[in-house]
Structure formats: C-alpha cells, structure tokens
Write a structure and sequence with these properties.
It is a single chain. Strands 7-18-19-20-5-6-31 form a seven-stranded mixed β-sheet. It starts with a strand and ends with a strand. It contains 30 helices and 31 strands. By secondary structure, the chain is an alpha/beta fold. Bound molecules: ligand MGD (2 copies) and molybdenum atom (MO).
Length: about 800
C-alpha cells in the first residue's frame, strides 16, 4: 500500500501512533506556518530532515517524522553549510599558476593559492586534459578514486565527473573499495557473493530465533547512523528490542572486540576481549574444539560444503606448520583463556547462533582470512540458512537486516558515455600498463610506475599516472601513510579536485573548483538503502553559496569546451532530469508499488512503499543446493578453494590460515618498539571527514581543539597522561597531535583515533607534525595480500607521549592562503 505524506500523516493521527513518533511530527510539518520562514524537506546520509529557511539561510534542522531514531549528527548540518572552510572561488595553486605542469611540486601542500575566474579555471582544466591525452595517453590520467559523495540520484557527483571525463577520453579505472576490499574479493570464492553488500537475514528473525549472537568486530549502534542512500534508522527499533532481550536473558549477545563498543555499552551485553588482529586464531581454536568434541555438523559439511578434508590436517597440526590449533595455542595469541574458548564453542553448537561480522577486521593485513575462517566456523556449526543462525557480514551497514520493500529505486545521472557516442580522444592504447588498478594501490602506482604485481589471480602493471582528477572523495583523508603519499604526489604534473569544502585533498591539488552542497540543489533519493522505504524529494534549501556551482553545471561547462555540453546534459535541466528519473521509477514500480505523478510527489515530498517481508539469507540454498547453488565455482561453500590454491599466494593460500602480521601489539612483531595498537575506526560523530569542518559540532568532541585519541587509564597513567592532555602520537611513518580521552572502554595496548580527522601539517615538509590528528598520518600503506590488495589501515603500531612544548595552531581548517 502506498501513502503520500499527507495521507501518512492523517493515518498516523487516527491510529494514535503519534506518541511513538514524538512531538517533531507536529512541529515540523503541520505547524510550519506559525514559525518564521519556510520548512523544506530534504535527505542526507544522516537521514531525512526538514529545514527551516529564513532570510535565505538554514536556521533550524529537524529530523523527518518517520525517523524514530535520528542521529545527533544532524546537529552538524548547519555548520557544514556555513563552514569557514567552504570553498568560495575557483583557486589555482600559486606555483602551478606560474609554471603549469612544470611547477615545483615540492610546494604542493603549502596551501598558497590564487583566485581565478570560473572561465579561467575551466579553461585550465580542459587544457590539461587535452595535453595529457595528446602528449601521453589514457594511461596517464587517473580519475578513479571514489567516495561518499552526498546523497541524491541526479547530482551524485562522481557520476558527473566520470561521464565528463569519459566523454573527453579514456583513463585509468579502479576496482574494489576501501570499505570491504578484502571481504568482497574473498567471499565470492567461499560463499558465492560479496556478502558484504547483500541483504541479510531480517532482524525480526534474529530476535525470534537466535539464542546466541556474536557481534564480531561489529558496532551497529555507531555505524548505522549513516547510510549510503538516505538513512531511515529502522534497524534501531530492533536493537531496542534486542536490548530488552539481553536484559531479560533470552538472548545472549557477546561482543568480540578489543574495545567496549558503543553497541556493547548500549545493549549491556557481554564483551569478549580479544587481542587486536588475532581473530583467526580464536576462530581456529573454536573450530578445533568443535571438531575434537564432535560438536560440528558433519552432515552439513557433507551436504553443503567442499574441502573440509583439505582444511582438517591444518587444524589438527598435521599440515606443514605442524601446529595443532588448540584452545591453548590460541590463548597464547589472542589472549582469550583456553577454557573460555572451549565453553564458547560448546555454547555456539548447543544454541541457535548468529555470527555478525563488522568490516574493520578485514581492513587489516591478511584481512581475507577472518572472513573465510568465519564462514568455515559457521559451516561447522551447520546453521547457515536457518532463521537466526549462520553468518552475516553487514548488519552494521545501511539498514541491512531491515526487510527490502522490493520496489525499484529511481535511476541516477548516467556515469558512462551514451551508446554510440565516442570520446573526443579515442585512444585506448594503455601501452602495456593496466587500465584498471586495485583501488588502494594507486599511491604505489604513483611511486613505481611499470611495476608488476599480483592481484586476484592476475597481473597488474602500474600505469605512469601524470594527472589526477577527484570529486566526491577525499583521498587526503582516506588513504594510508600521509608522508609516503606526499612523496608520491611530487611526481604528479597536475591535480584537479572538485569539492565544496577545503579538505587536505584541495590543499594538495593544483586546480580547485567549488561545488555547492546538496542543500543548494534539487534532487531526489531512495529513502533507505537496503530497506527501500520510499522516494524522497530533496528540496533546495538555499542558493549555492559564494561562487559555488552544482557538479552538474561544472561538468556541463567543462564539456562545452569541447563541444559536448548538450550531449552531456541530454539537453535537460535539473527539474526535467528529476521528473524523468522519477517517472522512470514510477513506471518500473507500476502496478506493484503505485506512485503519484511527479508534480504531486514533489509537492508532498515523499512516497512510501509497503514494507518488505522478513527473509532468511541462504535459506534457498539450504532448502536445495542443487536448485539454488551458491555462486562459487562448485556451487557449494568452499572451505578449500582450488582456484585460490592455484594462484600460489603465500599470503592467501587455498584454505583459511592464521598469519602473523607485520605489526601487532601484545607481544607481536614491532611491539617492543611501538607497543600500542592504533585502530582507526569509523567516527561516531562524523561520516569519515564529512562534518569535521562543522565548527560548533566539532567542538562537542575535540580536546584542546584537537581530535581525541582514546586510550586506557593504564596506558595513560604509565605515560603520565591525564584526560584532557595534549599528546603526540607517533611511529616511524609520522607524528600527530591529539587530545587524550582516557576511557575504561579501552584495554591496555589499544588506542583509537577515528578516521576522517582532517589533516593539517605544520608545513609541507616530510614528517611534519599533523596539528589536528589524522590517523592516516601513522597508518601503513600495504595491501592485505596478493589476492585483494586492499587497505590494511588497522595494522598499525604507535607510541603516545605527553606533549610539552608550545602547541602549534591547528592548520587543518579555514581554507587556502590567498596570494595575489
Ligand atoms: N585509517 C583509515 N582510513 C580509512 C578507513 C579506516 O577505517 N581507517 N576507512 C576507509 C573507508 S571504509 C572509506 S569508505 C573511506 C572514505 O573516504 P571518502 O569517501 O573519500 O571520505 P569522505 O570524507 O566521505 O569524503 C567525501 C568527500 O567528497 C566531498 N563531497 C561530498 N559530496 C560532494 C558533492 O556533491 N560534490 C563534490 N564535488 N564533492 C562532494 C566531501 O566534501 C568530502 O570531502 O575512507 C577509508 N579510509
Ligand atoms: N557513524 C558512522 N558510521 C559509519 C561510517 C562513518 O564514517 N561514521 N562509515 C560507514 C562506512 S563507509 C563503513 S566502511 C562502515 C565501517 O564499518 P566497520 O569497519 O565495521 O566499523 P569500524 O567502526 O571501523 O569497526 C567496528 C568495530 O571493529 C572493532 N575491531 C577493530 N579491529 C578489530 C580486531 O582486530 N578484532 C576485533 N575482534 N574487533 C576489531 C572495533 O573496535 C570496532 O568496535 O561504517 C559505516 N558507518
Ligand atoms: Mo567505507
């Protein structure tokens, strides 16, 4: 059943559900006229909201009435729009302006820029594209980095950049992403799909059937605050119920995590502390206990899996390493007492057990292994495909676990060139270089062009990149090892970035173009990424600030320089595009999900679809593996993979194994010199680097104006540090200033600095102190293995000391230094 917002409202009023939704229902919509200004609806990664606009300014933000669990990050929205770091004008780096591609690239990062007109900036951009395509070829241009562009199907900025660049010529592309690079590469071999981006068993089934839930490196209460599309936060109602069941003792939830996470604190559930990066050792010992006590499900292994026989000798110490993976063996690595390991294994086998994995354990060296071994453990328990049992890799992400409505989503602005259209430069000769590289290895490519590396069973030859174009991503936060990156950037001739705020990526660019925020354009979005609850209008709240333009306009103007602007925009303006996207969606959903015509939708602001039905992942496979095989080479769960085995990778052999890390705390390699493991988890109060420049909101969590570093009372005391102190965090790769946040949630040897903290070095020299606290100043830039070549950000050791000198000012925010 479909309801427009008005009917939804009256429906709610008559069913008396208003109390449940809260007072914002009335204040936001119905009484808007009593306020000064106008209320407008829009959406975001943080959820839908209504904004009061008065005198051409956003003065108030209120969550959408349907959002029963809005995130407090909405409090950062105003500060994002009116940030002092907003890019005001097109800017060109000083020395690049004088010498173009022959500039002194060691000056990159000194933040000296010249203001230019839009015409001049776009001419320069276009001339550089021409030069690179003509003098070099497609292998010299990389426009492949992507990221968390703001929501909205039409203005999705990465699509705009990619279409415009593709209309001009070919370029180097990327494969994979930073989120799940290792997981999405290994799991298709094991379970036949990426799993990380697949809908999971519905929370309602988990609440009804699960008796034991392992939250394995998963913090849904923190991470479900944001979604890839407009987030609905529906999963929180289930988490509320889970909390009640934990309190009542009907479900046992165990958080396996070195940190007492936000979710663990919220649920009041058990925590099983584990030494960082040692999860595979624990899993192996659980598997060993299951097998040696005959608690494993042999019938499931026989019916649904291949390769247990090849794995077994390794487990029992009859393989090359001659080490039996007993609970005692694991205790020495993971720090969990052997008796506890055995009792956990027994409990998992005895009960309906659901394993819920987060993603950060695959963002570490050999990150493929915990996911593969997690699948093997679940297979031995034999509950895959049962409601409330088996394994999931994504219940902390974008409302996975909330049933999908099944309605079609509106399409987006096309990312590719149109059929039969040819780019202006048709050259597709990559001169023996690879045209696609694993996403997290692009800095390697800058440093070692021509080098051949393994990747997922094939060879990649790094291209000789001369020019970068970036939009909707912030590589100067998202990539590892800043000082290495600084060095790599010196070889680049030209760097172009498009953003609305002056990130470190802008600082290290040559041409910077000011886009507007999503709140300065009209758009529409799918409400709910995986739940697909409806279609939401995203009304322009205010006009583009300063000289900023929509990405659509920016790239249309770029295409005009080579006579392709009409083709680019398909001769349609913003509202014409929105109508077309909406009507396409409406057609696809007729008759199953009726939608009103565009104009009515735009007036109402929202269309809701009927809720989806609860669902069990892998149930069809369990019911009949012949009729519904998995997407693996054999169709079965592959405990041993012949294909991976044939690649011959020592760092990812034919079945899951425990592999020591290049850096590991708690007695592991490197820990005598740098004893603290730094995890750079996803922030509770940001979306990566987004909102960091929102000043008032940032002030709610910073310490002495710096990013907090969370550490244990024991580690603080040992170093003479107290809560609120300024500290220096360092290793051989870099150093940063941060504010000490001492917390019982952290175990000795474990510290956290959230990713996305803005990089602000004191100057552009190598090793310069970062004044705000970007953890990627310290992380390692190595691939997970030859299989996935994904990021290993969480394999990182550091030391912390009290900072005593005169603290340098924070240089991360406030935009460029304008030179005339
Ligand atoms: N150490 C460490 N590093 C990590 C991670 C980690 O766990 N630890 N996590 C990794 C992961 S999983 C991810 S997904 C990445 C995230 O990396 P990114 O996705 O690159 O991070 P964001 O901060 O979201 O950057 C998005 C940028 O796009 C800009 N932008 C947004 N909307 C628009 C628009 O409409 N137009 C234009 N032109 N620009 C726009 C924003 O202002 C912002 O600067 O970080 C990775 N890096
Ligand atoms: N608030 C917020 N939510 C987000 C994002 C955001 O920026 N902000 N980003 C979104 C994106 S792009 C992504 S990719 C996801 C990321 O989702 P994840 O990668 O799952 O999230 P993290 O917060 O990095 O880590 C989750 C938990 O893993 C634990 N952990 C880390 N290392 C280990 C280990 O070695 N062993 C064990 N057992 N536990 C470990 C951490 O202590 C933490 O509690 O989040 C999404 N949600
Ligand atoms: Mo991510």
């Amino acid at each position: 059943m479909l309801v427009s917002r008005r009917r939804f409202l009256s429906g709610m009023l008559t069913t008396g559900a208003v109390a449940m939704i809260g007072p914002s229902l009335l204040s936001a919509g119905a009484h808007a006229s009593e306020q000064t200004g106008r209320w407008k609806i829009t959406g975001s990664h943080w959820g839908a909201f209504r904004a009061r606009v008065y005198g051409g300014k956003v003065v108030e933000v209120k969550p959408f009435e349907m959002d029963t669990h809005p995130t407090n990050m909405l409090n950062g929205i105003k500060g994002l729009i009116y940030s002092p770091s907003r890019i005001r004008y097109p800017m060109v780096r000083y020395d690049w302006y004088l010498k173009r591609h022959k500039s002194d690239t060691s000056q990159r990062g000194d933040n000296r820029f010249i203001r230019v007109t839009w015409d001049e900036a776009l001419d320069l951009f276009y001339e550089e594209l021409e030069r690179v395509q003509t003098n070099y070829g497609p292998w010299a241009l990389f426009a492949g980095q992507s990221g968390w562009r703001q929501t909205g199907q039409l203005h999705s900025c990465g699509n705009h950049m990619q279409r415009a660049i593709a209309m001009h010529g070919n370029s180097v592309k990327k494969v994979g992403d930073y989120s799940t690079g290792a997981g999405q590469t290994i799991l298709p071999y094991v379970l036949g799909s990426t799993e990380v981006y697949a809908q999971g068993t519905s929370w309602s089934h988990i609440l009804e059937h699960s008796q034991v839930i392992l939250l394995w490196a998963s913090d849904p209460v923190k991470n479900l605050q944001v979604g890839w599309n407009c987030e609905t936060h529906e999963a929180y109602a289930y988490l509320d119920q889970l909390k009640e069941k934990v309190a009542a003792g009907t479900i046992r939830v165990i958080s396996i995590d070195p940190v007492r996470s936000k979710t663990q604190n919220f649920l009041g559930c058990e925590q099983l502390y584990i030494n960082p990066q040692t999860d595979v050792a624990l899993m192996l010992a659980l598997a060993h206990t299951l097998y040696s006590e005959s608690l494993h499900d042999q019938a499931f292994l026989d019916t649904y899996c291949l390769g247990f026989e090849e794995f077994l000798p390794y487990l029992l110490g009859k393989g090359d390493d001659a080490t039996e993976k007993t609970a005692e063996w694991a205790e020495g690595i993971c720090g969990v007492p052997a008796d506890e390991i055995r009792s956990l294994a027994r409990s998992l086998a005895k009960h309906r057990s659901q394993l819920l994995f987060g993603w950060s354990i695959q963002r570490q060296q050999h990150g493929e292994q915990p996911y593969w071994m997690g699948a093997v453990l679940a297979a031995m328990l034999g509950q895959i495909g049962l409601p409330g049992g088996g394994v999931s890799y994504a219940h902390h992400y974008s409302s996975i676990g909330v049933p999908s409505s099944g309605a079609a989503a509106p399409g987006g602005f096309p990312r590719n060139v149109d059929k039969f259209s040819k780019p202006r430069h048709e050259n597709s000769d990559f001169k023996g270089y690879s045209s696609t590289i694993p996403v997290a290895r692009w800095v390697d490519a800058l440093l070692e062009p021509g080098k051949e590396v393994e990747y997922n069973g094939s060879k990649v030859v790094y291209p000789d990149i001369k020019m970068l174009v970036m939009s909707g991503c912030n590589p100067w936060h998202h990539h590892q090892d800043k000082n290495r990156m600084k060095n790599a950037f010196r070889k680049l001739e030209t760097v172009v970035s498009v953003d609305f705020t002056w990130t470190a990526t802008c600082r290290f660019s040559d041409i910077v173009l000011p886009a507007c925020t999503q709140f300065e354009r009209n758009d529409l979005d799918y409400y709910g990424s995986y739940s697909g609850r409806g279609v939401l209008a995203m009304k322009k709240l205010v006009d583009p600030l300063f000289q900023s333009k929509t990405d659509f306009e920016i790239f249309t103007l770029l295409c005009r320089r080579f006579g392709r602007d009409k083709e680019y925009a398909r001769k349609k303006n913003e509202m014409e595009w929105l109508e077309e996207l909406y009507e396409g969606c409406r057609e696809a959903n007729t008759p199953k999900f009726p939608m009103p015509p565009f104009r009515e939708f735009w007036r109402e602001g929202f269309v809701e679809f009927a809720k989806g039905k609860p669902w069990v992942r892998h149930a069809d496979f369990r019911a009949d593996p012949e009729v519904s095989p998995l997407g693996t080479p054999s169709g079965f769960i592959e405990i041993f993979s012949r294909k991976i085995d044939r690649f011959g990778y020592k760092d990812c052999p034919g079945h899951p194994v425990w592999l020591e890390k290049s850096e590991r705390s708690h007695g592991g390699p490197g820990s005598s010199r740098y004893p603290l493991w730094m995890q750079s988890c996803h922030p509770d109060k940001r979306l990566h680097s987004q909102l960091c420049d929102s000043e008032e909101f940032r002030a709610t969590y910073t310490i002495q104006g710096r990013e907090p570093v969370y550490l244990s009372p024991q580690d603080a005391k040992m170093r003479g540090i107290v809560h609120g102190d300024l500290v220096r965090v360092f290793n051989d790769r870099g150093q940063l200033l941060a504010g000490a946040h001492v917390s019982e949630n952290y175990a000795p040897g474990v510290i956290r600095i959230s990713e996305g903290a803005w990089y602000g070095p004191v100057d552009e020299t190598d090793g310069a102190l970062d004044t705000y606290g970007d953890p990627n100043t310290l992380t390692q830039d190595i691939g997970t293995s030859q299989l996935a070549q994904a990021t290993s950000a969480n394999t990182c050791l550091v030391e912390v000391e009290k900072f005593t000198g005169k603290a340098p000012a924070v240089t991360a925010f406030g935009g460029p230094t304008e030179v005339s």
